[in-house]
Amino acid sequence: MTNRQTPGFQTLLPEQILRCIESTGLRCNGDLLALNSYENRVYRVGLENDQRVVTKFYRPARWSDEAILEEHAFAAELDALEVPVVPPIASDGQTLHRIDEFRFSIYPFMPGRWPALDTTATLRQLGRLCARMHLAGEQRTFAHRHEIEPISFGYDSRDFLLDNEVIPPDLEDAYATLADDLLERIDYWFDAADHARRLRIHGDLHPGNVLQHGETLTIVDTDDAHTGPAIQDLWMFLSGDQDEQRQQLEPLLEGYRPFRPFADDELALIEPLRSLRLMHYAAWLARRWQDPAFQAAFPWFDSVRYWNEHILALREQLALLHEPPIYAG
User: Fold this and answer.
1) Phi and psi torsions of 294, nearest 5°
2) Three-state DSSP class for 33?
3) Catalytic residue among 65, 118, 204, 224
């Protein structure tokens, strides 16, 4: 695998992290815990008043300052509308801070656990939460953030993997042919749903980015906020075969529709979006492979077995893209 990207976090040491936090006027007590994050570096930090905050150090060159501030503004907008979300803390009116080569932001510490997706009540609540977020999301547009669509998530991912000698040589032809067929079907479904409204969305709303504390569900980590269709923020709560997904989809939309209209035509994008996520994920790992944290966390990525399994998963997606989409009810 060829060299692709400088990690950028080698000099981020504990004393540097605490110095960054204290540069905003907070006082740390020395308690520092690395949290589960690979794209950025995220830490829980104890303060002298026995409170805790979470600080996020942004991966260099991933987002522009304007794109980060746009995400911060979206989170603050949701918070002002009482949509449960965790926006960054402002210090002297600033939410994005810089010291040396690092850009970082600070958030309140939010305790909680993943929501239980095996209850219809929770799925309805998630539907309501997404609808309220999308009501705000459709009021403005992003100027500095990307759209979830086939070119950047699919074609660019395929090209990156093939151009950078990531895939084992014996599997390159199989992957290339399969990716072409898959992208043809993805294009077909995106063209069919071209009228579906694109709006500001969370973009990465898997169960780990929703925290349940008591009866409250709170959205966290809007770092991957994109422009895209509403269904992108719903489909990652679905699992199992089509019958199981249909049963989960019904309460999600029962919670969603009283707050915001939802067109059934968007459901045709579930499998295309799932396919794009699979392709984008493999390319994301490849782009970050020079970061030691990725090699430690994903040691299987650089193996023939992984690529055989990835190609099999894409073949399964291609078969689904030739089937009628699922519909609720």
Assistant:
1) -75, -40
2) strand
3) 204
**Confidence (pLDDT) at 327:** 82
- pLDDT for the residue 98: 96
| Residue 263 one-letter amino acid | A
Written as one letter, the residue type at 280 is H
Query: pLDDT (tens digit, 9 = 90+) per residue, 95-150?
Result: 999 998 899 999 999 999 999 999 999 999 999 999 999 999 999 999 999 999 99
Helix axes 304-320, 270-287, angle to 10 degrees: 160
Q: How many CB atoms lie within 10 A of CB 244?
A: 11
CATH of 14-64+86-108, one of 3.40.50.670, 1.10.238.10, 3.40.50.11270, 3.30.200.70: 3.30.200.70
Q: What are the residues facing 229 on neighbouring strands?
A: 198
Whole-angstrom CA distances from 231 to 52, 64, 130, 277, 282 are 34, 27, 10, 13, 22
Task: Locate the domains of the chain by residue range.
Answer: 14-64+86-108, 120-320
- Strand extents, DSSP E, the chain: 28-34, 41-47, 52-57, 97-99, 102-108, 198-201, 210-213, 216-219, 226-229
Q: Which amino acid, residue 216?
A: T
Asked about 194 being catalytic, the answer comes back as: no
CATH for 120-320 is 1.10.510.10
Question: Structure tokens of 115?
Answer: 């929501």
pLDDT in tens, 262-306: 989 999 999 999 999 999 999 999 999 999 989 999 999 999 999
- Quote the mean pLDDT of the chain: 95
Among this protein's residues, is 204 annotated catalytic? yes
Separation between Cα atoms, residue 157 and residue 24, nearest integer Å: 38
Q: What does residue 199 show for φ and ψ, rounded to 5 degrees?
A: -145, 175
- Which residue among 50, 221, 224, 264 is the active-site one? 221
Q: What is the pLDDT of residue 1?
A: 54
- Give the torsion sign (CA, 188, 192, 193, 195): positive
Q: Can you say whether residue 91 is alpha, beta or left, with left for phi > 0 and alpha for psi between -120 and 50 degrees?
A: beta
